[in-house]
Amino acid sequence: MRYPLTILLFLAALTGLTLGTAGPGAAQALAKDLFGAKTDGSPHLSEPFGFYSKGCLAGGVELPETGPTWQAMRLSRNRNWGHADTIDYIRNLSAFAAKQPGWQGLYVGDISQPRGGPMTSGHRSHQMGLDVDIWMLPASRLNLSRQFRENISSISVTTGNEAYVNDNWSTPHFRILREAAKDRRVERIFVSPGVKVQLCKQETGNRRWLRKIRPLGYHNYHFHVRLECPRRASGCVKQDAPPPGDGCDEAQQWVNNIVNPQPPKPRDPDAPRRVPQPHPRTFVMSDLPQACAVVLNPS
Ligand SMILES: [Zn+2]
Fold this sequence. Notes:
8 helices, 14% strand, four-stranded mixed sheet, 26% helix, Muramoyl-pentapeptide Carboxypeptidase, domain 2, alpha+beta, single chain
């Protein structure tokens, strides 16, 4: 029987019990190393704690390496773990993708580590099991070997500057991204600015889903789906909703700036300086929510 970690923490607070310790030496140890060493999920119900770029995942569920309509890629990273909702979402979306000509489903990139948390390489986010990268490469077959999945690369669907889609772009990409965004659990989806503009051009009907599609650089080989904090996940910090509207003009403006860069404006000396945020690779356990110590070492 698995219980929500929030309930266990609440009971522990009531009874004065100590739950989970970070372990000897953990005060100095980097969270990325502690979380990176875990090979399975914690024995709780699925529950995210913290924020997408500063958190962890209780009760992580493993996405099977190969399913009826997907294959997980780069298995050596062990990042095919997510919140139960994320795994369910991938099952549904990949079943939709499998109906597209030339697609047997989806190639799934990074989700999270078994217990989430900061990672040794790559992403700032993907820490709560609610982010998933999905490859733009059509999943034309689902019998790729583990070794092949280490070495194969995805394909880019844009020009090098990410301003326009290229010949790899196809109607199935449009349909899959629209389906991906229409799911009510989705908070936002990151794609290259040129991909967003293309989606804006192709949609001739209801444009509401386009609001969730957010332009971001380095999202031409994959798209990045971020799910909302699940209902009743009180330890999960929500992200501010995207600005109202379909965001198409803003994306077009971004593309215009790529093609025709504007000279930088002189800095306003009165404007507040942006404080650089520390990278999650430098986090220690005390940077994360307290529940994450229990996720790491349930006693
Ligand atoms: Zn991502």
